[in-house]
Design goal:
Blueprint: H1 7-13, H2 16-57, H3 63-71, H4 78-95, H5 100-122, H6 126-155, H7 163-234
Helix pairs in contact: 1-7, 2-6, 2-7, 3-4, 4-5, 4-7, 5-7, 6-7
Length: about 240
């Protein structure tokens, strides 16, 4: 009498431990796919919003107008928040009449801190995909080893062992490894893709910080020269 060796039958006939391993891997796979789709749309939104603000930044509008526009927005891009933090610190230090170097250093530190916060948000859940990609095959292998052990323990009670009696037990166990690979491979591919995309976003933000710092340096120098001229005139 032939045995049913379909995937569904093998899962249902597997031991309880192997079934729990399979269920955990399936749940992990579904969670990783949720993270993957969320990351795809999230990174696309970040890139588009950064590009929109960068075009607006170089459109010729004054820094004051840009700062006012960013302050009036409910949903801002990471680049906009970095710009706002640097501009806010720069204006605060200018009001205290500090020297241009101190104004620039303060604005740069504020932008660096904001950059790190934004990067932490962008990289969220990336470690989960890395863990799924590295751990899932071993979890599946554990289920396979346990299933094979369970199958051989059952075969020890038989007087005659043939390939037909061994195959179902081993096939049931190997399904756990297959599910582990099914969970791991998409997570690894997605992690590598997202890591490259995040690196590009980080480079774009760092470049913007340097360019904006140069603009602030010129503004701080001009303000300092004006202050010195006014002081010379009073003397």
């Amino acid at each position: 009498m032939s045995q049913d060796l379909s995937i569904t039958a093998l899962i249902l006939q597997a031991s309880l431990v192997v079934q729990l391993v399979m269920a955990g891997l399936v749940l992990t796979s579904l969670t990783s796919w949720t993270v993957i789709f969320g990351k795809v749309f999230g990174l696309k939104r970040v890139r588009n919003s950064n590009d929109d603000f960068e075009r607006e930044f170089w459109s010729g509008r004054s820094l004051t107008e840009l700062n006012t526009g960013v302050a009036g927005k409910a949903d801002t891009a990471p680049m906009e928040r970095i710009f706002a933090s640097g501009m806010r610190e720069f204006l605060k230090l200018r009001e205290k009449r500090l020297d241009p170097g101190a104004q620039l250093d303060g604005a740069r530190r504020a932008m660096r801190a904001s950059f790190q916060r934004e990067l932490d948000v962008i990289e969220s859940h990336l470690s989960f995909l890395a863990s799924v990609g590295s751990v899932s095959p071993y979890v599946g292998l554990f289920g396979t080893v346990w299933g094979i052990m369970h199958a051989f323990v059952g075969l020890s009670n038989m007087t005659q062992v043939t390939l037909a009696t061994v195959a179902p037990g081993i096939a049931e166990a190997l399904v756990a490894t297959a599910i582990g690979l099914f969970a791991a491979i998409p997570a690894v591919v997605a992690y590598n893709r997202f890591a490259r995309d995040i690196d590009r976003i980080a480079i774009q933000l760092e470049t913007f910080i340097e360019e904006f710092s140069n603009i602030l340096q010129r503004n701080a120098g001009q303000a300092g020269a004006t202050t010195q001229a006014m002081a010379s005139g009073t003397r």
